[in-house]
Amino acid sequence: MARPPHARDKVLQAYVALLLEGERGATMDAVAAQAGVSKGGLLYHFPSKDALAEAVLERFATVTADDLRAMRVAPEGAAKHFVRTSWQVDHELDPIYRAIVRLAQAGHAGALAAVDDLHRSWLAEIVAEVGDEAVARTIMLIGDGLYHQASMPGTWSRDTFAESLPDLLTLVDRLCGR
Which residues bind DNA (predicted)? Predict the structure, then answer.
């Protein structure tokens, strides 16, 4: 008898959640327990940790493709879109991005390639708009700094960035010569 389709998603979400706590703790037993499924139920959908990692990479590819599409069509332009959305850690991209980073830190070649590809793609979109790679890299560093600060515990960063975001976006315009 086939398992309910949502069980696969629950298992994948559990694996991502465990990766966020640390790659070593994301064992098959821990994933099954976190998802509330039997080990057999887990193995039905994902016969190995490699299969789980591949599913996370597929989800990452889908979410990042959506993000890049949104960046391309953003009325404000790719650079301002990147900075404006960088500090939003409640977006669906954030947990899957952090899970892929954890896998990359653990030496997973596919995850490392996926992170590199995403960063290259973000840079390419910004360069296409601003025409200067050094300016595009500076804009990415602004966004990366916002992301880092927003992911810190406490509310200081989020409150501060919410207030100062218009000034940062004005700075992005200045960097772009607008």
Answer: 27-46
66-84, pLDDT tens digit by residue? 999 999 999 999 999 999 9
As given in the structure block, the two tokens for residue 83 are: 């900075």
Could you tell me the two tokens for 109? 């070649």
Helix (H/G/I), strand (E/B), else coil: 60: helix
DSSP 96-139: HHHHHHHHHHTT-HHHHHHHHHHHHHHHHHHHHHHS-HHHHHHH
How crowded is residue 161: how many other Cβ atoms within 10 Å of its Cβ? 16
Tell me the per-residue pLDDT of 133-166, one tens digit each, with 9 for 90 and over.
Answer: 999 999 999 999 888 887 777 777 667 777 788 8
What does the pLDDT read at residue 121? 98
- Which residues make Cβ contacts (< 8 Å) with residue 109, sequence separation at least 6? none
A 10 A CB-CB count for 38 gives: 12
